[in-house]
Protein: Amino acid transporter transmembrane domain-containing protein
Amino acid sequence: MSRSPLLAPSTPKASVTPKTSKTPKTPKTPKTPRTPMTPMTPMTPKTPKTPRTPRTPMQYITPLASPMRKAAATVRDYLEDVGHLTRLDPQDAWLPITESRSGNAFYAAFHTLCAGIGFQALLLPVAFSFLGWVWGILGLSLGFMWQLYALWILTQLHESESGVRYSRYLQLSLKAFGEKLGNALVQFPTMYLSAGICTALIIIGGGSMKLFYEIVCGPECRSKPLTAIEWYLVFTCAAVLISQLPNLNSIAGVSLVGSITAVAYCTILWVLSLAKGRPEGVSYTTVEGKSEVESVLGVLNGIGIIAFAFRGHNLVLEIQATMPSTEKHPSRVPMWKGVRIASAVIAGCLFPVAIAGYWAYGNLIPPNGILSAMYRFHGAETSKRVLGLTAMLVVVNCLCAFQIYGMPMFDIMEAGYTKKKNKPCPKWLRSAMRVLFGAIAFLIGVAFPFLSDMASLVGGVALPVTLSYPCFMWLSIKKPKRYSLMWGINMVLGVLGMALSILLVIAGVWSIVIKGLKFRFFKPS
Structure:
């Protein structure tokens, strides 16, 4: 029987070879320690690139792009000026002087010129008849430079460093002199100048209307002429009608017309005086009185007429108040530009009228000035058209000047209402106030028709407002170092102006007493 393979004897196992001991590994070479890193030098930061100007979107490449850019620039300028806020009285937005603040240098020139030149310029040859050639020209030149310096002071003081704007002459005087002294020194003269000049304008304008009618109608006219009082009333009605314009900025066009007419009739008068020649008996010896006192009074009278020729300083701050003002664009810059333009034109009118008028008529010049002299000596040989045109130009100028000199009075009247009611003045009440002011000025003109003959006295009263007070205001507000150049200039000019004012007032009153004045109460000629 075959054997099962399962039962076959097992093959003897091969002898197990003993494990050989492992060969020891070669030890690794220790790693060289890393050299510590040297701290890196900080990199210089790169200069940031200028950001590229974004391109204008396609929708703005239109005719509207320029206005929109201007609007954006305006907003940006406003935001930059937020740190310099102008402090304004809330009631200023309700009053006629400061109701609108959109004025500019040209508006300032129109207002200053209309207020600074007028019928008073026609009296300058009379001043030369008292002073003579040398002292007349010297006095007029010094007076012009002095008043121009006073104008510069007022434009600089209009706005303080803290942003407060002094929009009226009285407000600046209260800041400089205090409440009691400021009211005592300034309130009466400024009101007297505004109301008194409006009254004088009614007298001169109404008289010029009468003269125009007589020239045009002629001696053969059969219609019954109006009386002097009726002509005053016609002029007053026209002036009150124009005065319904709401604020000072709204009468810029009226001031422009007044400026043009003033320059026109001044030019006509001095050109005709030169062209027609001198009448017989003209002499350039100064007018001498019967005594030394009268001679001195005559000299002072001439100085007073020159001082009266430079008017309008009580309106400078009011005119500047119509302009916007920011830290970058202060109102004094355009205002001073307008003042310089107006002053150049005023000088171009005053000096020729004074010199040509005195050359043509000498000491024959009548008390009413060069206009009366032309009608007296050359009326017969001058064309009626020229004479009538000159008279009408005077009328129009008086109507325009009435508006700017009446505006401070309108402002005072409305300020009383707004302070009491704390709301703006209604239109009907504003109109009624201006009609009332015109009626009062008309009654004063009828009752005192001789006011226009008191030029030297008015000049003495107005001289501190024009020449002295601005110098003292500079000393009080700016406080220059004692005995410095600015301190000395303003102190000398201020004291000299006050002394001249006192002398002129005394001389004006004394002249009236000696020579007499036809008072003609309620009897206008």
About this structure: The chain has one domain: 86-515.
